[in-house]
């Protein structure tokens, strides 16, 4: 818990304003992703264990990605209801540890984001939120034991789906035991809309200033994809102040098939 353990290496130096990118799909890490990351001066990269490169991740792939930026967030598919129609709806420890082990074996102080937007599952209700809370509570001590140097980020809900605020209310006490919380921030036309401010307010209401917030998905649906929109993301990130530490823009996808309105690469 923040305040009871050493600050992990993930945030030990100049984290505030960290500007990151979410990898959705690439055919070539060296020919496609790396030149874009370097050209745009991203200092953090977020990847997902179950997809992103069109084939199973290899040791060489993982090592290459981990070396691209000073910070890497690895998100799990366990706890993500949008993956394979909810096949791994809850963050069960056996699944989370199995899929993150190959990454932590290379970089023990890696950041791990558990799952993704629990409330996007159809029929989401309080009972499901309590079940999700149960698995988060079971997972945390096991992760601390297996990965003592890892930086653990609790999953955030989607405020574009019902039940986001209620999920946070039910799970907040367990989430406070993680090193940080994930926040997904989307605007329709800008990042100054009331809805964006409401998302940040919801976190500030439930978590005190000791609990770091990482915006692990950041996007604007409009205007259409262009360089100026990426500049807007960078400006927004530069204006963050503690406990808001950084943001990952959504997303780099070479195939441009998933959410093309948010595509930046």
List the helices and strands and how they pair.
Elements: E1 18-25, H1 29-39, E2 44-48, H2 59-66, E3 71-75, H3 93-104, E4 111-113, H4 126-146, E5 151-154, H5 164-175, E6 180-187, H6 194-206, E7 213-220, H7 227-238, E8 244-253
Parallel strand pairs: 1-2, 1-8, 2-3, 3-4, 4-5, 5-6, 6-7, 7-8
Give the ordered list of helices and strands: EHEHEHEHEHEHEHE
Number of domains: 1
* CATH architecture term: Alpha-Beta Barrel
User: How is the CATH topology named?
Assistant: TIM Barrel
Q: Structural class of the secondary elements? A: alpha/beta
Rg (C-alpha, Å): 17 Å
Mean pLDDT score: 92
The CATH first-level class comes to: Alpha Beta
* Total DSSP helices: 7
Biggest β-sheet: count, sense, barrel?
8 strands, parallel, barrel
Count of distinct strands: 8
Oligomer: single chain
Strand order in the sheet with the most strands: 1-2-3-4-5-6-7-8
The CATH fourth-level homologous superfamily:
Glycosidases
Keywords, separated by commas or semicolons:
TIM Barrel, 8-stranded parallel barrel
Please give a quick description of this structure.
The chain has 265 residues and is of the alpha/beta class. The chain is 34% helix and 19% strand. It has one domain (17-262): Alpha-Beta Barrel (TIM Barrel).
């Amino acid at each position: 818990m923040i305040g009871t353990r050493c600050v992990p290496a993930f945030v030990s130096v100049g984290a505030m304003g960290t500007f990151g990118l979410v990898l959705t799909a690439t055919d070539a890490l060296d020919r496609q992703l790396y030149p874009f990351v370097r050209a745009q001066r991203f200092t953090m990269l977020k990847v997902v264990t179950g997809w992103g490169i069109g084939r199973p991740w290899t040791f060489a792939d993982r090592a290459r990605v981990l070396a691209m930026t000073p910070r890497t967030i690895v998100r799990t598919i366990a706890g993500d209801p949008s993956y394979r129609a909810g096949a791994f709806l809850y963050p069960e420890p056996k699944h989370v540890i199995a899929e993150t082990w190959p990454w932590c074996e290379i970089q023990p102080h890696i950041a791990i984001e558990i799952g993704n937007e629990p409330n996007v599952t159809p029929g989401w209700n309080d009972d499901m939120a309590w079940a999700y809370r149960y698995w988060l509570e079971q997972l945390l001590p096991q992760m601390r034991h297996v990965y003592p140097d890892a930086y653990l980020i609790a999953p955030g809900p989607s405020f574009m789906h019902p039940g986001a605020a209620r999920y946070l209310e039910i799970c907040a006490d367990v989430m406070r035991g993680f090193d940080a919380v994930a926040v997904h921030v989307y605007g329709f036309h800008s990042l100054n809309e009331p809805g964006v401010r409401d998302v940040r307010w919801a976190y500030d209401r439930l978590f005190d200033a000791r609990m770091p917030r990482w915006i692990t998905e950041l996007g604007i649906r409009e205007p259409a994809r262009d360089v100026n929109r990426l500049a807007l993301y960078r400006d927004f990130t530069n204006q963050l102040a503690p406990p808001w530490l950084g943001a990952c823009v959504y997303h780099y996808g070479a195939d441009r098939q998933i959410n093309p309105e948010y595509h930046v690469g």
